[in-house]
Amino acid sequence: MRIHSNDQHDGDELSREDADFARQLAAVLRTSESPRAGFDERVRSAVQDAHAASSAATVFRLHPRTAVWRRPRSITLRPATWGAVAAGFAALVSLGTLSAARTAGRTQRPQNVASGLQRTVSPPAMPVPAHDTVYVVRFVLSDAGARTVSLVGDFNSWAKHATPLSVVKPGVWSTQVALPAGRHEYAFVVDGRRWVADPASERLADDFNTQSSVVTVGSGVVE
Amino acid sequence: MEVAVPSDADLIAAVVGGDLDAFTILVRRYRNLCFRFALRILGNRDDAEDALQEAFVRAFRALVTCRDRERFGAWLYQILVNECRTRATRMGRRDRQLVQLNPDIVDPASHRDSAVSEEIEYALAQLVPEQREAFLLKYVEELSYEEIAEITGVGVSALKMRVKRSCERLRELLEGVVR
Protein backbone atom coordinates (compact mmCIF):
# COMPACT_ATOMS: atom_id res chain seq x y z
CA MET A 1 0.00 0.00 0.00
CA ARG A 2 1.32 3.41 -0.85
CA ILE A 3 0.43 6.11 1.60
CA HIS A 4 -0.41 9.57 0.34
CA SER A 5 2.53 11.87 -0.01
CA ASN A 6 2.73 15.50 -0.93
CA ASP A 7 5.37 17.60 -2.63
CA GLN A 8 5.76 20.36 -0.09
CA HIS A 9 9.34 21.47 0.17
CA ASP A 10 10.76 21.18 3.65
CA GLY A 11 13.31 23.64 4.95
CA ASP A 12 15.11 21.25 7.28
CA GLU A 13 18.17 19.23 6.47
CA LEU A 14 16.42 16.04 5.49
CA SER A 15 16.68 14.93 1.93
CA ARG A 16 13.57 15.49 -0.12
CA GLU A 17 12.97 11.77 -0.11
CA ASP A 18 13.27 11.46 3.68
CA ALA A 19 11.05 14.48 4.25
CA ASP A 20 8.36 13.03 1.99
CA PHE A 21 8.65 9.73 3.81
CA ALA A 22 8.31 11.47 7.19
CA ARG A 23 5.18 13.24 6.01
CA GLN A 24 3.65 9.98 4.90
CA LEU A 25 4.11 8.53 8.36
CA ALA A 26 2.93 11.71 10.05
CA ALA A 27 -0.28 11.68 8.03
CA VAL A 28 -1.11 8.33 9.62
CA LEU A 29 0.03 9.34 13.10
CA ARG A 30 -1.78 12.68 13.01
CA THR A 31 -5.21 11.14 13.37
CA SER A 32 -7.25 12.80 16.08
CA GLU A 33 -7.12 11.17 19.48
CA SER A 34 -8.91 12.00 22.68
CA PRO A 35 -8.86 10.68 26.22
CA ARG A 36 -11.68 8.39 27.28
CA ALA A 37 -14.92 9.66 28.74
CA GLY A 38 -14.57 10.95 32.24
CA PHE A 39 -11.09 12.39 31.72
CA ASP A 40 -12.19 16.00 32.22
CA GLU A 41 -13.92 15.11 35.46
CA ARG A 42 -10.87 13.27 36.74
CA VAL A 43 -8.63 16.24 35.97
CA ARG A 44 -11.08 18.62 37.58
CA SER A 45 -11.18 16.49 40.72
CA ALA A 46 -7.39 16.30 40.85
CA VAL A 47 -7.13 20.05 40.36
CA GLN A 48 -9.64 20.69 43.13
CA ASP A 49 -7.59 18.46 45.44
CA ALA A 50 -4.44 20.33 44.50
CA HIS A 51 -6.18 23.65 45.05
CA ALA A 52 -7.46 22.58 48.46
CA ALA A 53 -4.04 21.32 49.49
CA SER A 54 -2.27 24.43 48.29
CA SER A 55 -4.74 26.77 49.93
CA ALA A 56 -3.84 25.26 53.27
CA ALA A 57 -0.15 25.88 52.72
CA THR A 58 1.64 29.02 53.73
CA VAL A 59 2.71 29.66 50.19
CA PHE A 60 0.52 28.16 47.55
CA ARG A 61 0.51 27.62 43.84
CA LEU A 62 4.00 28.92 43.44
CA HIS A 63 7.10 27.36 42.10
CA PRO A 64 9.22 26.66 45.18
CA ARG A 65 12.09 28.89 44.13
CA THR A 66 9.77 31.72 43.27
CA ALA A 67 7.76 31.16 46.39
CA VAL A 68 10.70 32.10 48.55
CA TRP A 69 10.38 35.64 47.29
CA ARG A 70 6.63 35.80 47.68
CA ARG A 71 6.52 34.79 51.31
CA PRO A 72 5.25 37.48 53.61
CA ARG A 73 8.22 39.28 55.04
CA SER A 74 8.66 42.28 57.24
CA ILE A 75 10.60 45.05 55.59
CA THR A 76 10.33 48.37 57.35
CA LEU A 77 10.16 51.36 55.04
CA ARG A 78 9.90 54.55 57.03
CA PRO A 79 9.05 57.88 55.37
CA ALA A 80 12.62 58.94 55.90
CA THR A 81 13.72 55.89 54.01
CA TRP A 82 11.56 56.77 51.06
CA GLY A 83 13.15 60.19 51.11
CA ALA A 84 16.53 58.53 50.92
CA VAL A 85 15.31 56.38 48.07
CA ALA A 86 14.06 59.37 46.15
CA ALA A 87 17.30 61.22 46.78
CA GLY A 88 19.29 58.22 45.69
CA PHE A 89 17.22 57.84 42.56
CA ALA A 90 17.75 61.49 41.66
CA ALA A 91 21.46 61.08 42.31
CA LEU A 92 21.50 58.11 40.01
CA VAL A 93 19.91 60.03 37.20
CA SER A 94 22.09 63.08 37.58
CA LEU A 95 25.44 61.61 38.46
CA GLY A 96 25.28 58.21 36.88
CA THR A 97 25.53 54.86 38.53
CA LEU A 98 29.29 54.70 38.69
CA SER A 99 29.67 57.90 40.64
CA ALA A 100 26.82 56.88 42.92
CA ALA A 101 28.55 53.65 43.70
CA ARG A 102 31.83 55.40 44.39
CA THR A 103 30.07 57.79 46.73
CA ALA A 104 28.65 54.86 48.62
CA GLY A 105 32.06 53.29 48.78
CA ARG A 106 30.89 49.95 47.44
CA THR A 107 31.99 47.86 44.56
CA GLN A 108 30.38 48.73 41.26
CA ARG A 109 29.60 45.79 39.09
CA PRO A 110 31.39 46.33 35.79
CA GLN A 111 29.43 46.73 32.62
CA ASN A 112 29.14 43.45 30.83
CA VAL A 113 29.33 43.42 27.10
CA ALA A 114 28.23 40.41 25.14
CA SER A 115 27.79 39.97 21.46
CA GLY A 116 24.27 40.57 20.32
CA LEU A 117 22.63 41.28 23.63
CA GLN A 118 24.18 43.13 26.49
CA ARG A 119 23.03 44.81 29.64
CA THR A 120 24.29 46.13 32.87
CA VAL A 121 22.83 45.83 36.30
CA SER A 122 24.13 48.48 38.63
CA PRO A 123 23.09 48.14 42.22
CA PRO A 124 24.35 51.36 43.76
CA ALA A 125 24.20 51.40 47.49
CA MET A 126 22.71 54.21 49.52
CA PRO A 127 23.99 54.95 52.99
CA VAL A 128 20.94 53.99 55.00
CA PRO A 129 20.54 51.19 57.51
CA ALA A 130 20.57 47.77 55.93
CA HIS A 131 17.20 46.62 57.22
CA ASP A 132 15.21 49.25 55.35
CA THR A 133 17.43 49.94 52.40
CA VAL A 134 15.94 50.00 48.95
CA TYR A 135 18.31 49.93 46.02
CA VAL A 136 17.77 51.47 42.65
CA VAL A 137 18.84 49.01 40.03
CA ARG A 138 19.35 49.92 36.42
CA PHE A 139 18.55 47.29 33.85
CA VAL A 140 19.89 47.75 30.34
CA LEU A 141 19.38 45.60 27.30
CA SER A 142 21.00 46.18 23.94
CA ASP A 143 18.95 44.74 21.13
CA ALA A 144 19.02 46.69 17.90
CA GLY A 145 16.09 44.77 16.45
CA ALA A 146 13.68 45.20 19.34
CA ARG A 147 10.54 47.26 18.94
CA THR A 148 9.54 47.05 22.60
CA VAL A 149 11.31 45.72 25.66
CA SER A 150 9.89 45.19 29.10
CA LEU A 151 11.27 43.88 32.35
CA VAL A 152 9.59 41.05 34.20
CA GLY A 153 10.58 39.61 37.50
CA ASP A 154 9.50 38.47 40.91
CA PHE A 155 9.36 42.13 41.92
CA ASN A 156 6.53 42.92 39.48
CA SER A 157 4.74 39.54 39.50
CA TRP A 158 6.21 38.76 36.07
CA ALA A 159 3.72 41.16 34.51
CA LYS A 160 5.09 42.02 31.13
CA HIS A 161 3.39 45.40 30.81
CA ALA A 162 4.33 46.63 34.26
CA THR A 163 7.90 47.80 33.63
CA PRO A 164 8.64 48.89 30.07
CA LEU A 165 12.16 49.91 29.11
CA SER A 166 12.87 53.14 27.26
CA VAL A 167 15.31 53.73 24.45
CA VAL A 168 18.31 55.64 25.80
CA LYS A 169 20.26 55.50 22.57
CA PRO A 170 19.71 53.58 19.35
CA GLY A 171 19.30 49.91 20.15
CA VAL A 172 19.82 50.37 23.89
CA TRP A 173 16.92 50.01 26.29
CA SER A 174 16.96 50.91 29.94
CA THR A 175 14.86 51.24 33.05
CA GLN A 176 15.47 51.68 36.74
CA VAL A 177 13.65 49.85 39.48
CA ALA A 178 13.72 50.27 43.23
CA LEU A 179 14.34 46.89 44.80
CA PRO A 180 14.75 45.75 48.36
CA ALA A 181 17.90 43.93 49.32
CA GLY A 182 17.88 40.34 48.24
CA ARG A 183 18.11 38.04 45.32
CA HIS A 184 15.72 38.77 42.49
CA GLU A 185 14.87 36.78 39.40
CA TYR A 186 14.12 38.65 36.20
CA ALA A 187 14.11 38.49 32.43
CA PHE A 188 13.40 40.74 29.49
CA VAL A 189 10.45 40.37 27.14
CA VAL A 190 11.23 41.62 23.66
CA ASP A 191 8.42 42.63 21.30
CA GLY A 192 5.85 41.35 23.72
CA ARG A 193 6.62 37.66 23.27
CA ARG A 194 10.31 36.82 23.09
CA TRP A 195 11.67 35.85 26.51
CA VAL A 196 15.31 36.87 26.89
CA ALA A 197 17.41 35.88 29.85
CA ASP A 198 20.28 38.19 30.58
CA PRO A 199 23.32 36.82 28.73
CA ALA A 200 25.70 38.59 31.09
CA SER A 201 24.22 37.48 34.35
CA GLU A 202 23.72 34.35 36.38
CA ARG A 203 21.00 32.25 34.84
CA LEU A 204 18.38 29.96 36.23
CA ALA A 205 16.18 27.45 34.48
CA ASP A 206 12.96 26.34 36.05
CA ASP A 207 11.41 22.90 35.78
CA PHE A 208 10.16 23.79 32.35
CA ASN A 209 13.49 24.98 30.96
CA THR A 210 12.46 28.61 30.94
CA GLN A 211 15.59 30.60 31.64
CA SER A 212 15.70 33.72 33.72
CA SER A 213 18.45 35.74 35.34
CA VAL A 214 19.36 36.66 38.87
CA VAL A 215 20.48 39.89 40.41
CA THR A 216 21.47 40.17 44.03
CA VAL A 217 21.34 43.61 45.55
CA GLY A 218 22.65 44.66 48.89
CA SER A 219 23.89 41.80 50.99
CA GLY A 220 21.27 39.54 49.50
CA VAL A 221 19.79 39.07 52.94
CA VAL A 222 16.42 40.52 53.80
CA GLU A 223 15.90 41.12 57.44
CA MET B 1 -24.51 38.55 18.59
CA GLU B 2 -20.80 38.05 18.96
CA VAL B 3 -19.46 35.84 21.68
CA ALA B 4 -15.91 36.62 22.68
CA VAL B 5 -13.67 33.60 23.11
CA PRO B 6 -11.45 34.13 26.13
CA SER B 7 -7.76 34.03 25.41
CA ASP B 8 -5.45 31.72 27.31
CA ALA B 9 -4.17 34.75 29.19
CA ASP B 10 -7.75 35.70 30.20
CA LEU B 11 -8.42 32.19 31.44
CA ILE B 12 -5.17 32.02 33.38
CA ALA B 13 -5.95 35.33 35.05
CA ALA B 14 -9.33 33.91 36.05
CA VAL B 15 -7.77 30.72 37.41
CA VAL B 16 -5.20 32.65 39.40
CA GLY B 17 -8.12 34.65 40.76
CA GLY B 18 -9.72 31.44 42.01
CA ASP B 19 -12.01 30.43 39.13
CA LEU B 20 -11.41 26.71 38.66
CA ASP B 21 -13.99 26.55 35.85
CA ALA B 22 -11.61 28.61 33.74
CA PHE B 23 -9.00 25.90 34.12
CA THR B 24 -11.50 23.34 32.85
CA ILE B 25 -11.81 25.41 29.67
CA LEU B 26 -8.04 25.29 29.27
CA VAL B 27 -8.11 21.53 29.76
CA ARG B 28 -10.74 21.12 27.05
CA ARG B 29 -8.83 23.44 24.75
CA TYR B 30 -5.59 21.49 24.89
CA ARG B 31 -6.42 17.94 25.96
CA ASN B 32 -6.76 16.29 22.55
CA LEU B 33 -3.59 17.71 21.02
CA CYS B 34 -1.65 16.90 24.15
CA PHE B 35 -3.19 13.46 24.46
CA ARG B 36 -2.20 12.53 20.94
CA PHE B 37 1.41 13.42 21.68
CA ALA B 38 1.43 11.50 24.98
CA LEU B 39 -0.19 8.50 23.34
CA ARG B 40 2.37 8.37 20.54
CA ILE B 41 5.23 8.77 23.01
CA LEU B 42 4.08 6.30 25.64
CA GLY B 43 2.27 3.83 23.45
CA ASN B 44 -0.80 3.11 25.54
CA ARG B 45 -3.88 5.00 26.57
CA ASP B 46 -3.67 4.38 30.32
CA ASP B 47 -0.20 5.87 30.65
CA ALA B 48 -1.00 8.67 28.22
CA GLU B 49 -4.07 9.70 30.22
CA ASP B 50 -2.16 9.51 33.50
CA ALA B 51 0.70 11.58 32.08
CA LEU B 52 -1.66 14.18 30.70
CA GLN B 53 -3.65 14.41 33.93
CA GLU B 54 -0.44 14.86 35.91
CA ALA B 55 0.75 17.49 33.44
CA PHE B 56 -2.48 19.45 33.85
CA VAL B 57 -2.24 19.27 37.64
CA ARG B 58 1.39 20.38 37.58
CA ALA B 59 0.44 23.21 35.25
CA PHE B 60 -2.32 24.26 37.61
CA ARG B 61 0.01 24.27 40.59
CA ALA B 62 2.60 26.33 38.75
CA LEU B 63 0.22 28.57 36.84
CA VAL B 64 1.32 31.79 38.52
CA THR B 65 4.82 31.12 37.22
CA CYS B 66 3.62 30.90 33.62
CA ARG B 67 5.39 34.04 32.55
CA ASP B 68 4.05 34.44 29.06
CA ARG B 69 0.41 33.61 29.43
CA GLU B 70 -0.35 34.08 25.77
CA ARG B 71 1.92 31.11 25.10
CA PHE B 72 0.33 28.78 27.62
CA GLY B 73 0.19 25.99 25.04
CA ALA B 74 3.96 25.88 24.58
CA TRP B 75 4.44 26.04 28.35
CA LEU B 76 2.01 23.16 28.85
CA TYR B 77 3.87 21.15 26.23
CA GLN B 78 7.09 21.62 28.19
CA ILE B 79 5.45 20.13 31.24
CA LEU B 80 3.95 17.28 29.26
CA VAL B 81 7.22 16.45 27.51
CA ASN B 82 8.96 16.25 30.89
CA GLU B 83 6.18 14.10 32.31
CA CYS B 84 6.31 11.74 29.34
CA ARG B 85 10.10 11.48 29.57
CA THR B 86 9.84 10.51 33.22
CA ARG B 87 7.17 7.90 32.57
CA ALA B 88 8.87 6.52 29.48
CA THR B 89 12.05 6.00 31.44
CA ARG B 90 10.11 4.27 34.19
CA MET B 91 8.19 2.07 31.79
CA GLY B 92 11.02 0.93 29.59
CA ARG B 93 10.42 -0.27 26.10
CA ARG B 94 9.18 -3.71 27.21
CA ASP B 95 6.01 -2.21 28.62
CA ARG B 96 5.18 -0.30 25.51
CA GLN B 97 2.10 -1.49 23.72
CA LEU B 98 0.96 -0.93 20.21
CA VAL B 99 -1.79 1.58 19.89
CA GLN B 100 -4.68 0.89 17.62
CA LEU B 101 -5.26 4.15 15.81
CA ASN B 102 -8.73 5.49 16.35
CA PRO B 103 -10.79 3.55 13.75
CA ASP B 104 -13.63 6.06 13.76
CA ILE B 105 -11.51 8.97 12.68
CA VAL B 106 -8.90 7.54 10.34
CA ASP B 107 -9.57 8.69 6.80
CA PRO B 108 -10.50 5.48 5.01
CA ALA B 109 -9.35 6.80 1.65
CA SER B 110 -5.82 7.30 2.90
CA HIS B 111 -5.46 4.67 5.56
CA ARG B 112 -7.51 1.72 4.44
CA ASP B 113 -4.97 -0.80 5.49
CA SER B 114 -4.85 -0.83 9.29
CA ALA B 115 -1.96 -3.24 9.16
CA VAL B 116 0.22 -0.45 7.83
CA SER B 117 -0.81 1.74 10.75
CA GLU B 118 0.21 -0.96 13.15
CA GLU B 119 3.53 -1.37 11.40
CA ILE B 120 4.16 2.35 11.70
CA GLU B 121 3.28 2.32 15.39
CA TYR B 122 5.57 -0.63 15.90
CA ALA B 123 8.42 1.11 14.08
CA LEU B 124 7.86 4.26 16.12
CA ALA B 125 8.12 2.20 19.28
CA GLN B 126 11.55 0.94 18.19
CA LEU B 127 13.06 4.43 18.11
CA VAL B 128 15.08 5.64 21.03
CA PRO B 129 12.90 8.04 23.07
CA GLU B 130 14.80 11.18 22.06
CA GLN B 131 14.35 10.44 18.38
CA ARG B 132 10.69 9.52 18.77
CA GLU B 133 10.03 12.74 20.67
CA ALA B 134 11.77 14.89 18.04
CA PHE B 135 10.05 13.14 15.14
CA LEU B 136 6.59 13.51 16.67
CA LEU B 137 7.01 17.16 17.56
CA LYS B 138 8.41 18.02 14.15
CA TYR B 139 6.23 16.01 11.80
CA VAL B 140 3.09 15.05 13.69
CA GLU B 141 2.65 18.19 15.77
CA GLU B 142 4.20 20.26 12.96
CA LEU B 143 6.21 22.53 15.22
CA SER B 144 9.21 24.50 14.03
CA TYR B 145 12.65 23.52 15.23
CA GLU B 146 12.78 26.74 17.24
CA GLU B 147 9.52 25.86 18.99
CA ILE B 148 10.73 22.32 19.67
CA ALA B 149 13.98 23.68 21.06
CA GLU B 150 12.03 25.89 23.43
CA ILE B 151 9.85 23.01 24.57
CA THR B 152 12.53 20.35 24.93
CA GLY B 153 15.52 22.42 25.92
CA VAL B 154 17.53 20.75 23.16
CA GLY B 155 19.46 22.79 20.59
CA VAL B 156 18.20 23.11 17.03
CA SER B 157 21.21 21.34 15.52
CA ALA B 158 20.80 18.37 17.83
CA LEU B 159 17.08 18.25 17.07
CA LYS B 160 17.73 18.19 13.34
CA MET B 161 20.11 15.32 13.80
CA ARG B 162 17.59 13.42 15.92
CA VAL B 163 14.89 13.90 13.30
CA LYS B 164 17.24 12.85 10.53
CA ARG B 165 18.27 9.70 12.37
CA SER B 166 14.67 8.91 13.28
CA CYS B 167 13.71 9.09 9.61
CA GLU B 168 16.61 6.88 8.59
CA ARG B 169 15.70 4.33 11.24
CA LEU B 170 12.02 4.39 10.34
CA ARG B 171 12.85 3.83 6.68
CA GLU B 172 14.88 0.80 7.62
CA LEU B 173 12.13 -0.59 9.81
CA LEU B 174 9.37 0.09 7.31
CA GLU B 175 11.14 -1.01 4.19
CA GLY B 176 8.61 -2.82 2.06
CA VAL B 177 5.71 -1.47 4.11
CA VAL B 178 5.78 2.19 3.24
CA ARG B 179 7.37 3.38 0.05
Commentary on this structure:
The complex is a heterodimer of chains A (223) and B (179). By secondary structure, chain A is an alpha+beta fold. Chain A folds into two domains: 35-63; 73-217, Immunoglobulin-like. Chain A is 28% helix and 23% strand. In chain A, the strands form two sheets. In chain A, strands 3, 6, 7, 8 and 9 form a five-stranded antiparallel β-sheet that branches. In chain A, strands 1-2-5-4 form a four-stranded antiparallel β-sheet. In chain A, 31% of the residues are buried. By secondary structure, chain B is mostly helical. Chain B has two domains: 1-97, Orthogonal Bundle (Rna Polymerase Sigma Factor, Chain: A); 101-179, Orthogonal Bundle (Arc Repressor Mutant, subunit A), CATH 1.10.10.10. In chain B, 67% of the residues lie in helices and 0% in strands. In chain B, helix 2 (20-42) crosses helix 4 (72-91) and helix 4 crosses helix 7. Chain B starts with 7 loop residues before the first helix and ends in a 6-residue tail after the last helix. Mean pLDDT of chain B is 85; it is low at 103-112. At the A-B interface, helix 1 and helix 2 of A face helix 2, helix 3, helix 4, helix 5 and helix 6 of B.
